[in-house]
Design goal:
This protein is mostly helical and about 425 residues long. The chain folds into 3 domains: about 80 residues, Orthogonal Bundle (Fumarase C, Chain B, domain 1); about 230 residues, Fumarase C, Chain A, domain 2 (Up-down Bundle); about 60 residues, Fumarase/aspartase (C-terminal domain) (Ribonucleotide Reductase Protein R1, domain 1), CATH 1.10.40. The protein is about 65% helix and about 5% strand. Strands 1-2 form a two-stranded antiparallel ribbon. Strands 3-4 form a two-stranded parallel ribbon. Helix 7 runs antiparallel to helix 9. The longest helix has about 35 residues.
Length: about 425
């Protein structure tokens, strides 16, 4: 991934140094297991542990000749260890190393993503409580609907990311897998104890049955979850973008002192960070389909999945880490315009009470159909003339047959719409 959208803590997981170190760890642990079951002399194991090392430049040079990354790695190890290197990789195939390593890299990456998610969830919770009673208009199809609170908006996002966190935990379990079972997964040339030992040491579970590779449905599930997280990011980013529009202006991304919004128009304060997250989310989701297509491979293995994973795994996880970090800062510093929220709420001319009027008419004995027609007629008049819905109701002969002035005044009591806000917060947060 390009440096612009990368953070070093996750980037380093996918650097050659980390990958090759994991390869070496796997090979040494396999040697330890061999020694425990009498397949490798203790003296040779000691030499392997002492001398085992690799040089990336040397491996790259060898790979250019042999056209195989694992063989190049093993050749370099042999050069450094000497004759005892013959015990390394016994009965194993390249995928035993590659797939187990990928599991570790994915697990390491998930650890960072979980941390970012956890911090974001805390920020959303704090912000939602802070604005629990910040009144604003709810919108349906972008049109004024009924009153809500900005805290409820954020609480919805909070629960969405909580679900994402839980999904990620399950997906992480699914890829925390070790497979060291040989060329077609039959353990013909490698004792099952080797796999069990290595898995335990690396804090992984063994793959119950594999071919030459760990089944790719595990990886597809993880990346489906990453795609869902990206969609949640885009969801709140899009909400912020809409609410920052000039004609709405209920929230605004923090705009620093020397920040510029436009090369042509000095007045501009654009929601560029949220727009950026929208674009990055598209890129993250773009990885889901290729990872699903990786499930289908020829027989016991081909390498059509390999090129996809070399690109998709690091790039997607790096992008998601960056996106979550960016979203945290947006939410933390979000400028919330309470006055504008209140203004937009009342700019609806009270039309958000149309359902209350409808229900009261039904309660007074009107059919739903007739009541709906009566209310809609007055509501459309209010909409088109930009006049008070309440005043027009008080003047309407048909409405007044059923509703007194007091009835109508009570309908327009704003507190009615917020009577269950505490209930919702308690149901979500448990307090």
């Amino acid at each position: 991934m390009i440096p612009r959208y990368s953070r070093e803590n996750l980037v380093k997981i996918w650097k050659p140094e980390n990958k090759l170190k994991i390869w070496l760890d796997i090979e040494i642990l396999a040697c330890e297991a061999q020694q425990k079951i009498g397949l490798l002399p203790k003296k040779s194991l000691d030499i392997i542990k002492k001398k085992a090392s690799f040089q990336i430049k040397k491996i790259d040079k060898i790979e250019k000749e042999v056209k195989h990354d694992v063989i190049a790695f093993l050749t370099n190890l042999s050069e450094n260890i000497g004759v005892d290197a013959r015990f390394i990789h016994q009965g194993m195939t390249s995928s035993d190393v590659l797939d187990t390593c990928l599991s570790i890299q994915l697990k390491q990456s998930c650890g960072i993503i979980k941390k970012e998610l956890s911090e974001l969830i805390k920020i959303l919770k704090k912000k939602s409580i802070q604005h629990k009673n910040t009144q604003c208009i709810g919108r349906s199809h972008g049109i004024y609907a009924e009153p809500t609170t900005f805290g409820l908006k954020l609480l919805t996002t909070y629960t969405e990311f909580q679900r994402n966190y839980e999904r990620l935990i399950e997906a992480e379990k699914g890829i925390s897998i070790c497979a060291i079972s040989g060329a077609v997964g039959t353990f013909a040339n490698v004792d099952p104890f080797i796999e069990k030992y290595v898995a335990k040491k690396l804090k992984l579970k063994v793959e119950p049955i594999s071919t030459q590779i760990i089944p790719r449905d595990r990886h597809a599930f993880l990346f489906s979850v990453l795609g869902l997280i990206a969609s949640s990011i885009e969801n709140i980013a899009t909400e912020i973008r809409h609410l920052q529009r000039s004609e709405v202006r209920e929230v605004e991304e923090y705009f620093s002192k020397n920040q510029k919004g436009s090369s042509a128009m000095p007045h501009k304060r654009n929601p560029v960070l949220s727009e950026n997250l929208t674009g990055l989310s598209r890129m993250i989701r773009a990885s889901v389909i290729p990872m699903m297509e990786n499930i289908t491979l020829w027989h016991e293995r081909d390498i059509s999945h390999s090129s996809v994973e070399r690109i998709t795994c690091p790039d997607t996880l790096i992008l998601l880490d960056f996106s979550l970090s960016r979203l945290k800062e947006i939410i933390k510093k979000l400028v919330i315009n309470k006055k504008r929220m209140k203004k937009n709420l009342f700019d609806s001319k009270g039309l958000f009470n149309s359902q209350r009027v409808l229900l009261q008419l039904i309660k007074k004995g009107q059919t739903r159909e007739n009541a709906y027609k009566s209310v809609q007629k007055v509501a459309m008049n209010s909409w088109e003339k930009n006049e008070s819905f309440e005043k027009l109701l008080l003047k309407d002969i048909e409405i007044r047959k059923y509703l007194t002035e007091k009835d109508i005044k009570n309908i327009f009591n704003l507190d009615y719409h917020y009577k269950n806000v505490d209930f919702i917060f308690k149901r979500v947060l448990g307090k």
